[in-house]
Amino acid sequence: MTGRQPPAARGASPAAGTGGASAAARAAVLRAGRAMLLLLLPAACAAPAAPAGPGQPAVRLSASFGAGCVARGAAVFLGEGRFLTAAHLVDGSLTPPACDGPPRLALLLGDRAVAARVERLGQSEVDPAEGLRYRGGHDLALLAAEEPLPALPGLRAARPCAGDPGPGRPVAVATPRRSARTTVVAQAPEADPAFGTYAELQLRLEPGESGGGAFDPVSGCLLGVVSHREEGEPGTRVVPPAAIRAFLAE
Predict the structure, then answer these.
(1) Measuring CA to CA, which residue among 36, 4, 77, 39 is closest to residue 177?
(2) pLDDT per residue as tens digits for the range 31-42
(3) Which of 140, 184, 215, 238 has its CA 20 to 30 A from that of 78?
(4) Which CATH superfamily is domain 170-249 in?
């Protein structure tokens, strides 16, 4: 599976009450023209993922929009039963038009699946040329567990770093599929400033890693949430700390 989801993914406004996009809006996303490779993993392409455990601050996340309509990615633990993930995993923007159900979310913690709900979503929009985009670069969703979390050693609460990472900054990436070291290549602003700026990592991440965390390897603070790859670019873009702080403060 290549992870092309879809060739132009850049946004749909959430449908009232569900946090998902309408079928018409999702169809527009599928027709849009700019390639953006979003790193969610459809169920049909699912591969084994490492469970959360010692030293693993990201957990697996599944979002089911109906039979055969399941997206898989990751979420970062913030403490007090709350998690941060990529909005495109849970807002329905990238599900096929036939997948109209409200999402059923499960955080996979050790050998338990914990139900979760969406508390806040980044605002997505569709542009005919650009595709799926998020206001302020907030490809983010705040989730709340709907039941007590099991005790998992090493599942520590993350906090956004004080400043955005510049080029050359070391980064420790943690998703349920890997733990790896890389560096920041550059800041990557959108053409329209209303849609924010991402930080681009040198490391190429793969489908199933959306929503994973990029951390400072010394302090452990959160440097970014894995968002997407741009067509033709080798690295991966993450939502940086300033955007995360602004989203959480809304």
Answers:
(1) 39
(2) 443 444 565 555
(3) 184
(4) Trypsin-like serine proteases (2.40.10.10)
